[in-house]
Amino acid sequence: xxxxxxxxxxxxxxxxxxxxxxxxxxxxxxxxxxxxxxxxxxxxxxxxxxxxxxxxxxxxxxxxxxxxxxxxxxxxxxxxxxxxxxxxxxxxxxxxxxxxxxxxx
Length: 105
Fold this sequence. Notes:
The chain is an alpha/beta fold. The protein has 4 helices and 5 strands. The chain has one domain: 3-Layer(aba) Sandwich (Glutaredoxin), CATH 3.40.30.10.
């Protein structure tokens, strides 16, 4: 799983071809920390079909706001640089994330 930041987000997500999943998380976000192992295991399961990235919004607030990420956690899927789907806050469960991934692979 690729860690992106405000320097690499554009290249790795917005300029990427195909599907990219972004796990938007923040320091001290307990639901984000609880979800992270599930996302990591999904990246092992589906990493050959979809690119997995994660962004610490605590270090990239303006970027998060520009992507309309206002609450955490947010799991978003981009296709060719456009956000096509996302799960926000309590919707962001391991089973919902997997179901969302399956829609796009």
